[in-house]
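#struct-help
A.M.: can someone run this one for me? Single chain, 100 residues.
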Amino acid sequence: MSGSPVAAPPVAAGELVGGKYRVGGVLGAGGMGVVVAADHVNFEQRVAIKFMRPDAGPQALSRFHREANIVAQLRSCAVARRACVSRFGSRSVGRWQLLS
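D.P.: on it. Structure tokens below:
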């Protein structure tokens, strides 16, 4: 995937993801996908949602799941907690606590 253009988010600011997270803006983008900030609509919870590129291959998806599992095991105020890894259409999506 090197040399590929940076992926655009599959959602626009203001849209709901999973029926409960309202998308803010893009936090960053890179070779594996794009990360957006979002707010839970019922609770005061800010999260970062990572959308994998739709053309992510098996190695990238495996790395994504390893990253999520490692983060889930870490306990520190300096490390975002993983909340969920799921699917959004054809993309793998990870949701993490958004640290200020």
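A.M.: thanks! Strands lie at 16-17, 21-29, 33-40, 46-52, 82-88, 91-97.
D.P.: also worth noting: The helical segments are 58-73.
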